């Protein structure tokens, strides 16, 4: 389902001394099936934006179209449908686990939406498999006996089981160690490839945004500050820094590398800016410096 | 010859089990922390890092072994507040650390706990907020601050106790890059200028690069320690432990496998560039 926002504004506590305009006119179009990342410092409007996308908040001004839903809606009815189609996994989603068993926890949303009971176990087990948990091994365990990374997978299964068309993940790897971090993001990338849906990743990590997403939105002061492919966005370090962000380390390295090439007047070819993988960077460097050695010998 | 010890914290063969748990969360951990040291502790989730942090100021007590802070055993009930005066803690979740309606009240609360005379509080609040660049927020409500601001207030609360040691238990995990930088800069300055001992537990390897020492935890045991240069040289070993290495170290490791040689491990991209440009 396509997502379109037209000049959407959002103000918290309007008409009170605490009124705060978190979104100052956001327009964007996310075509179905894209993997997008939203980046921006705390308070830039990211969380407000994703809560608007699944109808938890409604625009104060402007309109938005999320699939067949127009927001703000003419009547409140039907909003739970939107929330089924736009799955939102909050930060630290495992804090919301509460059932006695993993299967019961994942089934919770399905039971709530009134799915016939005989259809539930199959969907639950499929969702667990999708997030890389063997249902027979983990299904009847208490979610609280699992590791942090596994609990996070259970919580994500609870969102995926609803089969949302849009999956929004707010910092899905916060607090995980490096191995768990990569495992979760690789899993999300696989699910994105396997299932026909839009994935929206909210992240503080420029590295993850660059590596996993096709398209980036940089938020700053309640606005879309920049947008484009990672390659396009990270070519403008000045604008990135104005948004209170940094370039991915690998991009910073490429900038410094090219600067040295320029200053030294060396014949080494500058590095392209669309490298976001250390292995690729290594190959490019090896090629350049081997050539140099060869010319000497 | 008299050996003058600079150790401020000493762990001797410390083990810890949570109630009802089959496995020990910590197993025979021994090390000392020197006064003025900047120590980082890394390890995967469940490696025992956070348990270790809570043991350092007596929030948890060792099941076996002994921890001394300034020579006082943390298990000594009568002197636990002495221990907590020496070791300040800042935890991961900025939202779980506030008890009072305003920033200044919150900082005062911690001081009341250790019996700071009310006449001294004003100056200490002012001083602590200055250290973390938050003087403009004295009367603000903690829950209206950004994550980085909250954590800086939490640090100010710890600083007002005037601890000799500050323990940060993944204190930057929930912050954005800017918030992380703010917090790291504050503690690095406190370490450099005020000689405060800092023990930080973190998943962000970049935050460990300027440490005097890194301790690596796995399965509740201390499995390695050394300078950042020596620890991050062991790329395969760290990966087997579910850890990673900083970008510059990863890049050098990969280049080494392609036949590049580096005389020393560089911790920054600039360092790698220097090596590339100066080597043959």
TrEMBL record, chain A:
Protein topology in the membrane: Peripheral membrane protein
Domain ABC transporter: 3-246
Top class in the EC scheme: translocase
SUPFAM superfamilies, per the entry: P-loop containing nucleoside triphosphate hydrolases
GO cellular component: ATP-binding cassette (ABC) transporter complex
EC numbers, comma separated: 7.-.-.-
Classification via CDD domains: ABC_cobalt_CbiO_domain1
Entry coiled-coil feature ranges: none
GO molecular function: ATP binding; ATP hydrolysis activity; ATPase-coupled transmembrane transporter activity; cobalt ion transmembrane transporter activity
InterPro entries: AAA+_ATPase, ABC_transporter-like_ATP-bd, ABC_transporter-like_CS, ABC_transpr_CbiO/EcfA_su, ECF_ABC_transporter_ATP-bd, EcfA2, P-loop_NTPase
UniProt keyword terms in alphabetical order: ATP-binding, Cell membrane, Membrane, Nucleotide-binding, Translocase, Transport
Cellular localisation: Cell membrane
Coarse class of the protein's main subcellular location: membrane
Subunit and interaction comment: Forms a stable energy-coupling factor (ECF) transporter complex composed of 2 membrane-embedded substrate-binding proteins (S component), 2 ATP-binding proteins (A component) and 2 transmembrane proteins (T component).
Role summary: ATP-binding (A) component of a common energy-coupling factor (ECF) ABC-transporter complex.
Family: Belongs to the ABC transporter superfamily. Energy-coupling factor EcfA family.
Name under which the protein is recorded: Energy-coupling factor transporter ATP-binding protein EcfA2
UniProtKB/TrEMBL annotation, chain B:
SUPFAM superfamilies attached to this UniProt entry: P-loop containing nucleoside triphosphate hydrolases (SSF52540)
Compartment list: Cell membrane
Annotated keywords: ATP-binding, Cell membrane, Membrane, Nucleotide-binding, Translocase, Transport
GO cellular component, one term: ATP-binding cassette (ABC) transporter complex
Membrane protein topology class: Peripheral membrane protein
Family listed: Belongs to the ABC transporter superfamily.
The protein, known as: ABC transporter, ATP-binding protein
Organism of derivation: Aneurinibacillus aneurinilyticus ATCC 12856
């Amino acid at each position: 389902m396509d997502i379109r926002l037209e000049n959407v504004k959002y103000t918290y506590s309007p008409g009170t001394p605490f009124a705060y305009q978190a979104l100052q006119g956001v327009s964007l179009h996310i075509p179905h099936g894209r993997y997008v990342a939203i980046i921006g410092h705390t308070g830039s409007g990211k969380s407000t934006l994703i809560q608007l996308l699944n109808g938890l908040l409604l625009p104060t001004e402007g309109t938005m179209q999320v699939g067949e839903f127009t927001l703000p809606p003419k009547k409140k009815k039907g909003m739970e449908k939107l929330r089924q189609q736009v799955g939102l996994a909050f930060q630290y989603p495992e804090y919301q686990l509460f059932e006695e068993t993993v299967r019961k926890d994942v089934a919770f949303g399905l039971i709530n939406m009134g799915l016939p009971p005989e259809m539930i176990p199959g969907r639950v087990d499929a969702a667990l498999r999708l997030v890389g948990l063997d249902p027979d091994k983990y299904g009847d365990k208490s979610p609280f006996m699992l590791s942090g990374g596994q609990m996070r997978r259970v919580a994500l299964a609870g969102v995926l089981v609803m089969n949302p068309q849009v999956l929004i993940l707010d910092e899905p790897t916060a607090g995980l160690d490096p191995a768990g971090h990569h495992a979760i993001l690789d899993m999300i990338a696989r699910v994105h490839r396997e299932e026909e849906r839009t994935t929206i990743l909210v992240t503080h990590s420029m590295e993850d945004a660059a590596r996993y997403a096709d398209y980036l939105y940089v938020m700053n002061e309640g606005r879309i500050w920049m947008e484009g492919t990672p390659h396009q966005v990270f070519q403008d370090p000045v604008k990135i820094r104005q948004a209170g962000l940094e370039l991915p380390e690998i991009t910073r390295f490429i900038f410094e590398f090219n600067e040295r090439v320029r200053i030294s007047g060396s014949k080494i070819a500058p590095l392209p800016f669309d490298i976001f993988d250390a292995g690729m960077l290594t190959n490019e460097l090896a090629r350049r410096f081997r050539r140099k050695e060869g010319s000497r010998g | 010859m008299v050996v003058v010890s600079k150790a401020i914290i000493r762990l001797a063969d410390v083990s810890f089990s949570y109630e009802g748990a089959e496995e020990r969360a910590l197993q025979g951990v021994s090390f000392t922390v020197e006064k003025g040291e900047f120590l980082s502790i890394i390890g995967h989730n469940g490696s025992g890092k956070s348990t270790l942090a809570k043991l350092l100021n007596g929030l948890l007590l060792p099941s076996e072994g002994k921890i001394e802070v300034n020579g006082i055993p943390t298990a000594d009930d009568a002197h636990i507040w002495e221990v907590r005066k020496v070791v300040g803690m800042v935890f991961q979740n900025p939202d779980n650390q506030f008890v009072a309606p305003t920033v200044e009240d919150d900082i005062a609360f911690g001081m009341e706990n250790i019996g700071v005379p009310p006449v001294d509080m004003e100056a200490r609040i002012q001083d602590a907020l200055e250290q973390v660049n938050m003087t403009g927020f004295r009367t603000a409500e903690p829950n209206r601050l950004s994550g980085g601001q909250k954590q800086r207030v939490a640090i100010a609360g710890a600083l007002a106790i005037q601890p000799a040691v500050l323990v940060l238990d993944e204190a930057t995990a929930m912050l954005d890059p800017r918030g992380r930088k703010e917090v790291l800069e504050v503690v690095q300055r406190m370490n450099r200028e005020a000689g405060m001992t800092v023990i930080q537990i973190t998943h962000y390897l970049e935050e460990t690069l300027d440490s005097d020492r890194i301790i690596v935890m796995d399965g509740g045991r201390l499995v390695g320690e050394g300078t950042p240069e020596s620890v991050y040289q062991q790329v395969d070993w760290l990966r087997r432990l579910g850890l990673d290495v900083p970008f510059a170290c990863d890049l050098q490791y990969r280049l080494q496998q392609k036949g590049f040689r580096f005389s020393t491990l560089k911790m920054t991209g600039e360092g790698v560039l220097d090596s590339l440009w100066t080597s043959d």
